[in-house]
Write a sequence for this structure.
């Protein structure tokens, strides 16, 4: 959209990339998004917008399209058709305009094992263009309690410590948009709880927008302000966890998830057109 | 304040604590490249077996060809007059090999450590990744070849630097060719995943017979000459022979090699970008991280 370009004569705050026609564009806006791999439809025409300062969970079984959707939000995958805008930038073409304002964490991506925690944070801090690198590393290390193992190689840390380091890497640039894929996978309940607390705090204190893909329904119930449920690349539900539980007449989000995954709920309860409209 | 990103909420007092340079600035680009070079330097520094591994093969090759040359020199007038031909050839060949592997293996380390997704998601731009890999290949080349060149002098009295300006021309043509090979091989890994890893390791050795490292191009069958002369390293090894056997520096050969190198490097950069885009279309960047 031409209107997202920086315009001469506007005030500095209006010149921010995600200011469109005088009002702030949503942190994430997805319109009619499709992704086809060979002949497999991974994402089939989804649309949604995310509000600032919110946590949204992307749910769905294996092959539902969560990873592909997140990859398109990051610009790692180019859509077959449709539009993905993050912080006002078209992620298929202009991702480098906003990549320094976002970050991600996934158990499927590691940081180099031989480097110490400090060296890893230093490298990523430089990649994200941090000006006061030492100061920011100290700040993140303090917030995430990394001080005692800052000088240890990442590969020699426990799973819980590694998760804290991955989170520190994801927060090193103080991102406005944080994408998380299974943020508490393989963690013990105590560490997982600690991570959830940190994420909620980051969203509230920093005013960040968080998107997370998770299979942990208790986690989603606790963290998410909104749930977008995917099935075969389509959005089949899009509402708050409480609304979703109430609509399906269940006690927990896990039961709702199983209903949808097994296709046992009444067709009218799904109302995909309604949810798409709401998005 | 001017180096802060004007698009960033942090630059406008939103309460965020990290200050970030304008990602489009030269300053930020330099920070990113330095970050990547540091990343590889920390790996080299953290592991002496890795450093030893960098030196191991060039040292073995140099010793083997050096002793062979000493043996032949005692029995053949030609070999006695051509002192430095084999050992010079092997040292220059290793510059090509180590530089290409330095480039490709640095990239492969990102795949092995499952860090590629983080890099591709970071503000690091593809050309900055290429510059980083080039700098790292030079760094690794220095670690590998400086001790080996010194030992060649100590063991066999062969001083690579005594080639003077010719050495600079040989070196430049070999490393530029190594970067072109590195770009194509890493591009193939980006596009096809680890199935293409062996290509990154082996591609340079496929050129060895055609580059005529230890024998003149005239040794090859006639139909192979155009193939040999399509490769810049061939001109380097012909140039080495001219220098050692006739004490003449063939500037024309180096100029032709450089012209070919410029063409190949531009093509290889195009191929690398093409494969990267292709990987973003078919999703292989995401699959590689899992």
């Amino acid at each position: 959209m031409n209107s997202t370009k920086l315009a001469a004569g506007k005030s500095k705050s209006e010149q921010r990339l995600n200011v469109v026609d005088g009002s702030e564009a949503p942190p994430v806006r997805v319109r009619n998004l499709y992704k086809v791999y060979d002949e497999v439809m991974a994402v089939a025409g989804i649309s949604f917008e995310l509000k600032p300062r919110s946590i949204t969970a992307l749910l769905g079984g294996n092959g539902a399209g969560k990873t592909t959707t997140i990859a398109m939000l990051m610009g790692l995958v180019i859509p077959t058709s449709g539009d993905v805008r993050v912080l006002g930038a078209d992620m298929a073409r202009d991702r480098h305009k906003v990549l320094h304002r976002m970050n991600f964490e996934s158990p499927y991506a590691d940081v180099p094992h031989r480097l110490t925690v400090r060296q890893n944070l230093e490298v990523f801090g430089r990649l994200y263009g941090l000006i006061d690198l030492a100061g920011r590393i100290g700040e993140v290390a303090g917030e995430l309690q990394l001080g005692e193992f800052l000088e240890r190689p990442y590969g020699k840390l426990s799973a819980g410590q590694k998760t804290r380091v991955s989170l520190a890497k994801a927060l090193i640039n103080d991102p406005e948009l944080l994408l998380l894929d299974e943020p508490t996978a393989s963690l013990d309940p105590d560490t997982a709880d600690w991570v959830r607390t940190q994420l909620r705090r980051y969203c509230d204190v920093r005013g960040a927008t968080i998107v997370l893909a998770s299979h942990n329904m208790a986690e989603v119930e606790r963290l998410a302000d909104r749930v977008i449920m995917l099935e075969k690349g389509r959005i089949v539900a899009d509402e708050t966890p409480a609304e979703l539980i109430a609509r399906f007449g269940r006690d927990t989000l896990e039961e709702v998830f199983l209903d949808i995954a097994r296709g046992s709920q009444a067709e009218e309860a799904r109302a995909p057109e309604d949810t798409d409209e709401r998005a | 304040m001017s180096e802060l990103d004007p698009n960033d909420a942090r630059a406008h007092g939103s309460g965020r604590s990290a200050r970030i340079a304008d990602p489009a600035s030269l300053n930020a680009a330099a920070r990113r490249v330095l970050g990547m070079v540091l990343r590889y330097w920390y790996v080299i520094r953290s592991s002496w077996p890795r450093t030893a591994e960098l030196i191991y093969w060039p040292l073995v090759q140099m010793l083997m060809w050096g002793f062979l040359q000493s043996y032949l020199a005692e029995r053949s007038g030609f070999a006695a007059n051509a002192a430095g031909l084999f050992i010079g050839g092997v040292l220059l060949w290793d510059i090509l090999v180590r530089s290409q592997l330095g480039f490709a293996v640095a990239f492969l380390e990102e795949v092995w450590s499952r860090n590629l997704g983080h890099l591709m998601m970071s503000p690091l731009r593809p050309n900055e990744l290429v510059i980083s890999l080039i700098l790292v290949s030079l760094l690794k080349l220095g670690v590998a070849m400086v001790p080996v060149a010194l030992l060649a002098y100590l063991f066999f009295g062969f001083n690579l630097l005594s080639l003077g300006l010719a050495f600079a021309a040989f070196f430049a043509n070999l490393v530029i060719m190594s970067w072109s090979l590195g770009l194509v091989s890493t591009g193939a890994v980006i596009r096809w995943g680890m199935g293409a890893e062996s290509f990154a390791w082996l591609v340079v050795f496929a050129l060895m017979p055609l580059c005529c490292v230890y024998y003149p191009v005239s040794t090859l069958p006639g139909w192979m000459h155009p193939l040999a002369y399509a490769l810049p390293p061939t001109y380097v090894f012909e140039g080495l022979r001219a220098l050692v056997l006739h004490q003449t520096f063939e500037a024309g050969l180096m100029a032709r090699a450089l012209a070919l190198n410029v063409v190949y490097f531009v093509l290889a950069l195009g191929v690398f970008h093409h494969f990267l885009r292709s990987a973003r279309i078919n999703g292989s960047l995401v699959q590689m991280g899992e």
